[in-house]
Design a protein that fits this description.
Helix content is 57%, strand content 8%. The chain is mostly helical. The protein starts with 7 loop residues before the first helix and ends in a 9-residue tail after the last strand.
Length: 103
C-alpha cells in the first residue's frame, strides 16, 4: 500500500489553524498593550512578517520533503535522506556502507 501525500484540503486546514492562532495572539498583544499604555496600538513591522513567511516556507518545504521521502521509499528499493540541496533537490539517494567481511 502506498501512502498518499497530504492534499490541498489538509494544507488548507493547517493554514486556517495557523492563521486563527496568529489572530488570537495578535488580539492578545493589542489588548495587553492597550492596557499598559492608554491609547496605544500595535503595529506589525516588516521583519515580523518576513519571519512569518520564512517560517511558513520552511514548514512547506518540510512537508514536501516528507511527502517526497515517503513516495521514494514506497516506489524504490533504494535509500533516501532529506537534505537541503543547492540544486533544489528535496531528497538525496544514499548508498549504504557495507561492512567488511571478517575472515
Amino acid at each position: 500500500m502506498t501512502a498518499n501525500p497530504p492534499g490541498p484540503a489538509f494544507q488548507n486546514k493547517t493554514r486556517v489553524a495557523i492563521l486563527a492562532e496568529l489572530d488570537k495572539k495578535k488580539r492578545q498583544l493589542i489588548q495587553n498593550q492597550s492596557m499598559n499604555t492608554p491609547g496605544g496600538s500595535i503595529s506589525l513591522s516588516r521583519p515580523n512578517l518576513k519571519e512569518f513567511r520564512d517560517n511558513a516556507e520552511q514548514q512547506h518545504i518540510a512537508a514536501q520533503q516528507k511527502a517526497a521521502l515517503q513516495h521514494a521509499h514506497a516506489h524504490s528499493s533504494g535509500f533516501f535522506i532529506t537534505q537541503d540541496s543547492s540544486f533544489g533537490n528535496l531528497i538525496l539517494p544514499v548508498l549504504p556502507r557495507l561492512e567488511a567481511a571478517e575472515s
